[in-house]
């Protein structure tokens, strides 16, 4: 039986992925943080699906640990707020692939089989300042569960200014 490690801080998404992988016959180890990784008593992990941005930090620090104890494990970084820099860093640390959310189970499975063995395969376009700002605002908004007022306070701007910025963004493709 193949095994998969899921590191995802969004409980609903983690539970959905767990159920989907279990439905395909995988043994699933689902955790929400790096700290929980140390409590795992697992002899073998075939695949790992890691969310880049965790509630407390990043899962980039888990990649070398997985590679040290499970050298044949295929690692996929999954993120809703990824940048080219983060993708390159993940690949350099040992991840096999990097994709953006939202992602279907079939996309995740195919990405686990794909290999970005050469960093030249990653598009090297630098995101614009406007794109980086948008990604960060969406990250903070997601962390605040969509609460505009809370996100505006965390960003240090007025609520109406945040709403105006959000309205000005074109839809993502």
UniProtKB/TrEMBL annotation:
GO terms for biological process: regulation of DNA-templated transcription. Keywords: DNA-binding, Phosphoprotein, Transcription, Transcription regulation, Two-component regulatory system. Residues 3-116 form the Response regulatory domain. InterPro entries: CheY-like_superfamily, HTH_Fis, Sig_transdc_resp-reg_receiver, WalR-like. One of its GO terms (molecular function) is transcription cis-regulatory region binding. Coiled coil: none annotated. The keyword Transcription applies. The modification 4-aspartylphosphate is found at residue 51. It comes from the Bacteria. One of its GO terms (cellular component) is cytosol. This is Two-component system, response regulator RegA.
């Amino acid at each position: 039986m193949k095994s998969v490690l899921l590191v995802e801080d969004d409980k609903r998404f983690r539970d959905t992925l767990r159920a989907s992988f279990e439905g395909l016959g995988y043994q699933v180890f689902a955790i929400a943080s790096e700290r929980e990784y140390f409590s795992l008593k697992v002899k073998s992990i075939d695949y790992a699906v890691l969310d880049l941005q965790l509630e407390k930090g990043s899962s980039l620090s888990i990649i070398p640990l997985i590679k040290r104890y499970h050298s044949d494990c295929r690692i996929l970084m999954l993120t809703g707020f990824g940048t080219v820099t983060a993708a390159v860093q993940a690949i350099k640390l040992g991840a096999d692939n990097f994709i953006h959310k939202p992602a279907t189970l079939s996309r995740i499975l195919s990405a686990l089989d794909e290999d970005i063995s050469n960093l030249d395969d990653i598009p090297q376009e630098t995101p614009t300042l406007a794109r980086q700002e948008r990604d960060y605002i969406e990250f903070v908004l997601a962390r605040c569960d969509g609460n505009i007022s809370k996100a505006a306070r965390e960003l240090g701007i007025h609520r109406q200014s945040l709403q105006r910025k959000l309205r000005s963004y074109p839809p993502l493709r």
